[in-house]
Each structure stands twice: as C-alpha cells, then as structure tokens.
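Fold sample X.
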Amino acid sequence: MGTHRDTKYVASFDEVFKAGGAPILKTPLQAPNANAHAERFVRSVRSECLDHLVILGERHLERVLRTYARHYNRHRPHQGLGQQVPAPPQPSRPPAASIAALQMRSPPRAICQIRRRDRLGGLIHEYELVAA
C-alpha cells in the first residue's frame, strides 16, 4: 500500500494496513503525481461503478471490482491511449487478410455483427464485433 509523505498520515495509519498484511511503500519525495494512474482508476471506478451500486459485503465488493477492472483494462477506451484499451482481448475473428479476401469474392455487405454484453446488472455495456 502506498502512502503519501504527508503529516496527515500518522504511523497508526500504516499499522492498519500492516495488520492486514499489506506492505507499506512510501511515494517518492517531491513527486505529487506518482500515484496519478492509481488515483485516476479510483476516480473512474467510483464514478462509473461504485456510486451506482449498493455493495452487500466484502465478497460482493471484490466481485464488482474484479469485473470493473477487467472492463477497464480490456474494453473501456482510454483518451491517453488514442481511444484504445490497455490490454485488448485476443481477437476471435479471422485476420484482416481473410476478411479482405472474403469481401473481394462476395458482393459488398456487412460481414460482421455487433454483440453487446451487459456487466454488473447492465450498469456497464461491452460491445464486440462477431462474424456474421
């Protein structure tokens, strides 16, 4: 667990995490943006997910966070990555060369359909192209 080098975090604050088995890592000196990526994820998970759900317990929270993290890394576009995802899923469709060959042999038409999958009870929607 990372902590800021700020006077508002006292030693007893770290003890809570140590008791839970979490390691204590200090942020670098004079590096206020060292946790920017983690803080951005926390802000996203809170505003896009947790603010809209009633969490029923620790297991439920873990499941929700696992589902959201998978969505965040595999399906949600990120502006800093040119609207790409950090870890795109493995393609389940033929390579582009095969698609181009199919298009040349047949009249122009849509060869793909879009499939929508709801996550977290419909709070999040994921879309993917599937061969028709």
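Fold sample Y, listed below.
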Amino acid sequence: MIVMRKALSCLALLVAFVIGVQAQATPIQITVDTSSLFGMSASLAFDLIDGDGGSTPSSVTISGFNSDGTLAGHSSSASGVTGALPGTVTLTDTEFFVEYLQQITLGNLITFIFDASGNFAGLTPDSFSFFILNETATASLITTSDPTGANALFLYGSSEGPPLALFSSLVTAGVPNNAPEPGSDALVMAGALALGFVHAFGQRRLRRRVRV
C-alpha cells in the first residue's frame, strides 16, 4: 500500500505539471475594444525584448489580424521582423529590441492571434508586449496598469506567475476557434498515464501472485 500511495502521488504531480504547462500555452487570441478611440490615427506597436542575451532563441508570430479600422504604412526596428499586417508577422529576437509598428486609423475593434515559442519564463525571460501609440509612435493613447509605466495593454513573459498579464480592461484573451481547448491535450496525456500506471501495477500484482 505504501508503494502504491507513492506511485499515485508521483502520478498526481506529473499530471498537475502537464496540465499547468498546457494551460499556459499559446496560441492566444487577443481582442481589443478601440471604440473609445474611433477615428483616431494611431500606431500599433508589437515589441519583442530579448531578456536572456540570446541564449535561448525566441519568436512571436502574429496572425489572423482583423479590424474595422484602416491600415496604413508599417515599419520595423530590426532585421528580426518578417511579413506585414493584415498578413502574418513574425518577430525573432535577433537583437535585444525588435519592434513592428503598424499605422492605423482605429475602428471599434482589433483582434489577432499571437503564438510564442522560446524563453518566456524563468529568471531572465524574453517578453512580448503590445501598445496602442499615437500616429508618430511617441506616446501611448491609453493609460494602463502596466507597472513599468510604459502603458502596455498586455505582456507575455514572466519570471514568476502566469506568463500572460493583461493591463487594460479593453483587452480580452482567449483560445482561438481553431486551437484545442486549454488542457484538453493534457487531460488526454493524463488519462494515458493513468491507464499505463494501472496496467503496470496490475501486472506487478499478477507476477507477485504467480511467484507465491
């Protein structure tokens, strides 16, 4: 019985770890209510910062962009940016600071999906943040609860706690329609682990009975 309890405890810890990792996974769909800024000329800023000095390559892909606003020109700060909205844009941490700026006349809503891979957790995580700036990209159009004072609408990447932090009530985050529900893969894996454990334990009990 003691061996069985230990095995069940280890299984529970493993299942909890898998579910925790899966619950924090991207892709994530971001929706921003821009109705209070309707008609204003703005710059959308997508920023990737390399927190670990390039020891672990990281990238962020922006896809599925949609808005009832009107897109204008775009620019980027580094060679680590490929693509342009409303198509797919990828930011890679080839430099310490990589930024994609998209000029837009704002409508009522902005939605996009971001998918991150690399080092976005731990002691020196990379980070990805999103801003709505003025037309010249020199100041934020929205005041948020961003603790750094930069007025980011959200940040992905953290040395502690969940990797995604929302700093504005205008922003909601969810699972894209074409992505699996958070935790579904983890539950399948947990079920497989449980079945494997039950089978192995049953076989061990059977062998002991045969020897007796």
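Sample Y note: Residues 184-211 form the longest helix (28 residues).
Also: Residues 26-174 form one domain.
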